Amino acid sequence: MRIGVFGTGVVGQAIGAKLVALGHEVRMGSRSADNESAATWAGEAGPQASRGTFADAAGFGELLFNCTAGLASLDVLRTAGAENLAGKVVVDVSNALDFSQGAPPTVGLGNADSVGEQLQREFPEARVVKTLNTVNCEVMVDPSLVPGEHDMFVCGNDESAKADVRSLLESFGWPANHIFDLGDITSARAVEMYLALWLRLWGVAQSPHFNIRLVS
Ligand SMILES: NC(=O)c1ccc[n+]([C@@H]2O[C@H](COP(=O)([O-])OP(=O)(O)OC[C@H]3O[C@@H](n4cnc5c(N)ncnc54)[C@H](OP(=O)(O)O)[C@@H]3O)[C@@H](O)[C@H]2O)c1
How many structural domains comprise the chain? Predict the structure, then answer.
């Protein structure tokens, strides 16, 4: 499949590399077509990898990943162009981290909204699915880095989009019985606010390779 990845940071690179390893064609998007990180990534990832602007990546992909800074993601998708998003699954892995007051960051959107909802509201023809934002990017693409059984969440308004994303997650190594559907895109608030706890657990675990498991 042709997949567009918005984002040149560690997340875009990890997801892009995994998708290429799985046999997909991937175009990484950035604000500028000559972004150095994207050039390095594409050079290392091989002939299935390419780079361009956010709009280039959006036009290229049959499915899209948003791996950009959460508080900038709405602007990124505007730049990508509504016509390039219409009808496509947009997998949103972003977090709305606010570093304006230094570290540790705060969660910049709260109870009443989320990045996932912002994107779905502004682009009603896109099929936004929120997932993967609750784990470190290395764990996103290799859940076996965390020992034992642990869980991933999906949410979104479009059932068939969620089914497509579940299949993709399974190809990343997430067991089907550990992928929980939280419901519609308003559930993005919950998984985005979880970052406040994730940041504290990171300090406790002394490693970013951890996750949570639902026990009931
Ligand atoms: N690090 C992790 O393990 C992890 C885990 C879960 C979720 N996340 C989330 O995944 C996302 C990506 O994280 P990251 O650390 O790889 O990268 P990041 O530094 O959060 O974001 C980098 C991307 O955001 C774009 N960007 C930043 N500010 C922008 C602005 N003002 N306007 C337009 N675009 C802007 C950059 O564009 P350019 O390419 O043009 O510079 C770049 O592509 C974030 O939302 C993060 O919270 C990260």
Answer: 1
DSSP symbol at 163: H
- Which CATH number do you get for residue 175? 3.40.50.720
53 ligand 1 Cβ < 6 A: no
Q: Which residue range forms the structural domain that includes residue 28?
A: 2-205
Residue 212 maps to a domain: no
Under the banding of pLDDT at 50, 70 and 90, the label for residue 110 is: confident
Per-residue pLDDT reduced to its tens digit, 145-163: 999 999 999 999 999 999 9
216 lies in some domain: no
Instruction: Judge if the beta carbon of residue 141 lies within 6 A of ligand 1.
Output: no
Phi (first) and psi of residue 87, to 5 degrees: 80, -10
Task: Please state at what angle helix 10-21 crosses helix 36-45, rounded to 10 degrees.
Answer: 20
- Flag whether the pTM goes above 0.90: yes
Atom of ligand 1 nearest to the CA of 138: 3
